Fold this protein.
Amino acid sequence: MPNTIKIALHGKVFNDEVKPHIKRVVDVLISSKAELIVSELFAEKFNTAFPEYANFDIFTQLSESDEVHYLISLGGDGTLLEAVNYVGALETPILGINTGRLGFLATTPKDKIDKALSDLLNKNYKVDSRALIHLETDSNVFEKKPFALNEFAILKTDSSSMITVHTYVDGEYLNSYWADGLIVATPTGSTGYSLSCGGPIILPHSNNFVITPVSAHNLNVRPLIVSDQSVISFKIEGRSNKFLVSLDSKSHSVDSSIKLSVRKADFKAKLITFDQLNYFDTLRQKLNWGLDLRN
């Protein structure tokens, strides 16, 4: 194990219950001679909670010059999605330690921290490469981060009536969705917002997107699975001229003049996994499959 290993840490607000687990992560890494840097969003809370570690460097966006080997996400799935934004096209492997709630992506539980860090530092892990969705617009809405691990969504604003999303696949007209919105989810995102709107679960390496309407006006409209080699484009209409577009937790208000299309990104998110837990284990545990009093 090299002494020059460099690890980035990212997290959100944490409470007193979580604090000892975060300290444990830092203590183990420091004792292993790892060099640590902390995300800007995490730094203020982190430095207040751990003044003895307040001299760590801070990053706002990782770059090649940072020479980071791993990023550790300390939180829930939302925190890990933010971590993907910090990494971007660098494809730095991300370890998600679940100090939050669901933990569908951040699968390492708090009681497995020591084992996970030992395996990480000794390179005893696997890398699960997940496809990302990339948004192309004529207005540079999301600047340098026009990508998402879970989904792209077009949504009505809170006060407006339903919208119409004219949708095209590889330039061919698919449908006009009268709905509160429309989601295009990756296989990773198929267990998120899309699932709550009636979409199917897609296994991570299925090479597909799923198009899922949000509260469709026509009950005959169903989610549709398409190849992730497709380019999906949209035209939006509604009584209001303002709509929301989102990439995971990032969202912006746009008007109907904007041109929108999505495709698979040219790079992937690389999630660190261990032999103890596979995707089907996660499905059963997080979705409570088989949980029945009769069992």
